[in-house]
Amino acid sequence: MCQEVNMANGVEKSLLVIVLDTNPVQKFVRQDTRILTQCLDSVIVFANAHLMQKSNNQLAVMACHSHSSTFLYPDEKPMEVRQIDGQYEGFMMVERTVRQNLQKLIHEIVTNKPLNTESLIGGALAMALCYIVRLEREKAAGEKIHSRILVVTGSNDSASQYMNYMNVFFTAQKLGVVVDVCSLDQELGLLQQGCDITGGNYLKIPQLAGLLQYLLWVFLPDPKVRSKLVLPPPVKVDYRAACFCHRELVDIGYVCSVCLSIFCKFSPICTTCHTVFKMPGPMPTKIKKKKKNPDIVH
């Protein structure tokens, strides 16, 4: 009887962590800075749509760039928001908090630090997983949290973050966290692997003007119901690995038998675990034995 009561009183929550790439060096941002504002508007509407689906849904918004990653929402010091007629107070809180924190972040990036073309998406995903684990530990008895992460980026996935990506993807798989990726500019092979490993959706949108429509269509539905919807067909995943020596994707390489590090060229010493290998010598050639002629009988 006690078990039935606990199951009846159990609360299921859906947690969505949005990782927004705010690197100003992204191609579409350099072409027109107003596009970043349009993308932010679409992400905020998408975030509020997630909160509107269920009263106990939870949300977190992160920003990543070339130097660090930070949370835009929720804020450590929540701001006071006066309710406006016709607008839900929670939606206004999300919008104002995200915009103000992002404005401060971009100002710090442009004024204080040199720009870099590589965004630290791997680090942002790791922070998102830590946030999810913290909420799992702090949840009340009987609560169940279904967590997922959405990455919205226009940067390329650098092979130099290969190990960070793989660690994050397999950790998310173990935790049961779905990773979705919405690419704004180009195909992202490593992030495709993450979606395939965790059971998430990957989509490269054909037009930035339709970002909100694609977010609501592909990424808003819960992963449990996506199989019943008509969604874009899955893309062919590029499962090439990145070598540890040059951080480049390779088709064929050498693998350390101790730590499984990958190298594009043979090295007598593994640079990761310092294992010493024998130099590959020439292939031994088999000496063909001459057949003896049988005795000729006259």
Describe the protein's architecture and organization.
This protein is α/β, with parallel strands linked by helices and 298 residues long. The chain is 36% helix and 17% strand. The chain is built from eight helices and ten strands. It has helices at 2-9, 27-31, 34-53, 89-112, 121-138, 162-175, 189-198, 211-219, and strands at residues 11-21, 58-64, 69-73, 143-153, 178-183, 202-204, 241-242, 249-250, 254-255, 262-263. The strands form three sheets. A six-stranded mixed β-sheet has the order 3-2-1-4-5-6, with helices on both faces. The chain has a two-stranded antiparallel ribbon with strand order 7-8. A hairpin with a 4-residue loop joins β2 and β3. α3 packs parallel to α8 (211-219). The longest helix has 24 residues, at 89-112. The radius of gyration is 26 Å and the shape is elongated. The protein starts with a helix and ends in a 35-residue tail after the last strand. 29% of the residues are buried. The model is unreliable at 1-8 (pLDDT under 50).
